[in-house]
Amino acid sequence: MRAEFQKENLSLYFIAGTQDCPAGIETVLRQAIEGGITMFQFREKGPGSLDSKDDIVSLAIRLQAICREAAIPFIINDDVDLAVKIGADGVHVGQEDEKALEIRAKLKGKILGVSVHSSEEAAKAKADGADYIGVGPVYPTTSKADAKEARGTEVIRDIRLAGMQIPLVGIGGITAENAAPVFASGADGVSVISSISRAQDPKEAARRFSAIIG
Ligand code: TZP
Ligand code: MG
After folding, report:
1. Which is nearest to 174 in space by CA: 154, 204, 153, 195?
2. Tens of pLDDT along 10-33?
3. Is the entire prediction scored with pTM above 0.95?
4. Domains in the chain: ranges and CATH
5. Crossing angle of the two packed helices 53-70 and 25-35, in degrees rounded to 10
6. Residue 211 has what pLDDT?
7. Ligand nearest, relative to CA of residue 96
8. Do 56 and 39 meet the contact criterion of CB atoms below 8 Å apart?
């Protein structure tokens, strides 16, 4: 784990790729940072995402520079090789991706996040060396084509009731209006795509979460 990583980094965890940002991802990321996001994940995936590996690498490098300037962690979704290549701060993977245990061995000193859907998967992620877990979808989402059914805050509560103390972030359909129950159920933060990336004013959209974040 990176010495600098703390659960406070998860408070307002913005995720985006080209496909999520009609106003342009670099502009949106800069505005989201001004609005107070605490961590960023580059997730270039699905319809509207870049095809060319070279374009993805150069975009990743530009987004990493923006995050570095703002001193917020820069995480890459799925692509461990890309993260190693550019020296990202960490990687986030799901249950269908490369095994967390193998990634942990490759990413010494980096942040590792794992998506989970039950307290069993949460325990395994922790044992494999995850620094934090993502739990969702909490609410229905249109940003992930193969998302599982939304289960409200139930799974977050289950994981906490099972005694899991790992840093935890809720994801899926979260807005400033519905984020409070996510924190109340035991999450340390919220991960959001569209409520910031598709907002008319991403800075203001991010800012509106600050009243809910402790
Ligand atoms: N994993 C579970 S839901 C989701 C991901 C990546 C998408 C979240 O996007 P949004 O727009 O905040 O619902
Ligand atoms: Mg994945």
Report:
1. 195
2. 999 999 999 999 999 999 999 999
3. yes
4. 2-207 (3.20.20.70)
5. 20
6. 82
7. 2
8. no
Check if the interface score ipTM surpasses 0.95: yes
In the block, residue with structure tokens 């519905």: 178
Distance CA 64, CA 59 (A): 8
DSSP of 6-45: -GGGGTEEEEE-GGG-TT-HHHHHHHHHHHT--EEEE---
CA gap 156, 186 in Å, rounded:
6
| List 11, 110, 115, 203, catalytic entry | 115
Does 144 participate in catalysis according to the annotation? yes
Specify whether 195 is catalytic. no
8 Å CB contact between 46 and 19 = yes
What distance in angstroms lies between residue 211's CA and the mean position of ligand 2's atoms?
Answer: 30
Nearest alpha carbon, ligand 1 atom 3: 172
What token pair was written down for 30?
């800069």
3-state secondary structure of 111: strand
Q: Are 146 and 155 in contact (CB under 8 A)?
A: no
Ligand 1 within 6 A of 194 CB? yes
Q: State yes or no: pLDDT of 3 exceeds 80.
A: no
Residue 42 — φ and ψ, nearest 5°? -85, 115
